[in-house]
Amino acid sequence: LEHHSAMQLLFKLCQFWRESIKMGDFAAPSQKDTWLYSSQPFIEQIYDFKPATLPQRQSVQLVEKYVDSKGINRVKGSRFLKGSQAYTRQFGRALARLRTRHQSEVKAAAAAFLCKAAGGKQRAPRKLSSDFQSWIKSADLN
């Protein structure tokens, strides 16, 4: 991903950190290594919010290895591969809690970025809607 031309352009605009996790630690049916990219260094704290207990799930094989008719070793995705692309609720909650922990840093960095993008002009902070505020309270992110 980081070698893609669009990502290279983005990396020139902002500093990024990356953290490797195993999705199985966040209740995915396989361990599946995943790289997380963030514009904030605290992404490395994602494991602070790893679920204490995980639901019992049967582990699945994401790939199948076989030898084709010409004797060549091959690998193909199993029927579980596509489903492994979705993030789990536990991962989403961990990410939301991490962002909430660092909310003031995130807002300050966003304000600085927007100011820089606007050519140095300050923008007035936007007031959160009451619907969004009530959603945050009901999301139980603490």
Task: Compile the SSE list and pairings.
Layout: H1 5-13, E1 17-22, E2 33-38, E3 63-67, E4 73-77, H2 89-101, H3 103-117, H4 130-138
What does this structure look like?
The chain is of the alpha+beta class. 32% of the residues lie in helices and 15% in strands. The protein contains four helices and four strands. The strands form two sheets. Strands 1-2 form a two-stranded antiparallel ribbon. A hairpin with a 5-residue loop joins strand 3 and strand 4. The radius of gyration is 20 Å and the shape is extended.
Structural class: alpha+beta
Mean pLDDT: 83
What fraction strand?
A: 15-25%
CA radius of gyration: 20 Å
- For the secondary structure, the number of strands is 4
Percent in helix: 25-40%
Q: For the report, how would you describe the main beta sheet?
A: 2 strands, antiparallel
- The order of strands across the largest sheet is 1-2
Low-confidence runs: none
Beginning-to-end CA distance, first to last residue:
32 Å
Work out the helix count.
4
Order of H and E elements: HEEEEHHH
Which of globular, elongated, flat, extended, rod-shaped describes the shape? extended
Give keywords:
142 residues, alpha+beta, two-stranded antiparallel sheet, two-stranded antiparallel ribbon, 4 helices, 4 strands, extended
Task: Summarize, please.
The protein is an alpha+beta fold and 142 residues long.
